[in-house]
Amino acid sequence: MNAPRTTSVVVVGLGNPGRGDDGVGPAVAARVGELLGDDGGLVRVVGHEDPVELLETWAGADLAVVVDAVRTGGEPGTVLVLEAGGDAEPLTEEPWGGPARGGTHAFGLAAAVELARVLDRLPSRVAVVGVEAAGWAAGAALSAPVAAAVPRAVATVLELLSEEGGC
After folding, report:
1. Helix axes 24-36, 144-165, angle to 10 degrees
2. CA 3/CA 19 separation, integer angstroms
3. Which of 17, 21, 74, 108 could tie 97 with a disulfide, CB 3.0–4.6 Å?
């Protein structure tokens, strides 16, 4: 029998479901939420379009798993994991900056992580699950390779949660 879990965890699906592959984060987070059901409140699953909201969303969490669309130049649908909390190296802006570059949308995941680090509001562990995107067209659905990657990304999130204490 597993010991009861005492770690506070938040899973965040970052992105806008109305902008093509940018909706992969909320899609993955929603599926994780369905699979976990009621776990006693230790895991919160949320979706956000604005990375600035992360500072409040992960407040008090020991682990934050953030799922987001990325653009690294890799094959669309590729799933990658990067550790960004605690003593991890600063998160670079390029793959996590978001599709838009003007106004508040220029404040992407990397900026939110680094601001939280400076303000001492970063969880001890932040795992970023990135899914390589093909496009961010307004009104578009997930591209075929990104939609096909959703189950792999969900499995990756669940694996990260189980490492942390038995989800």
Report:
1. 50
2. 41
3. 108
Query: Between β-strands 125-132 and 63-70, what pairing exists: parallel, antiparallel or unpaired?
Result: parallel
Encoded tokens for 13: 């699906």
Rg (Cα) of the chain, in Å, rounded?
Answer: 15
Q: Which amino acid, 135? A: G
Q: What secondary structure letter does DSSP report for 78?
A: -
Distance CA 143, CA 97 (A): 20
Q: Would the pLDDT of 162 be above 60?
A: yes
Instruction: Assign a CATH topology to domain 9-165.
Output: Rossmann fold (3.40.50)
- Integer Cα distance of 122 and 130 in angstroms: 19
Taking only the tens place, the pLDDT of each residue in 23-81 is 999 999 999 998 988 665 556 777 767 777 888 888 888 899 999 999 888 999 999 99
* CA-closest candidate to residue 72, choices 124, 15, 133: 133
The token duo for 124 is 């001890």
Question: Is the pTM of the predicted complex or chain greater than 0.85?
Answer: no
Contacts of 161 (CB under 8 A, 6+ apart): 9, 11, 43, 63, 65, 167
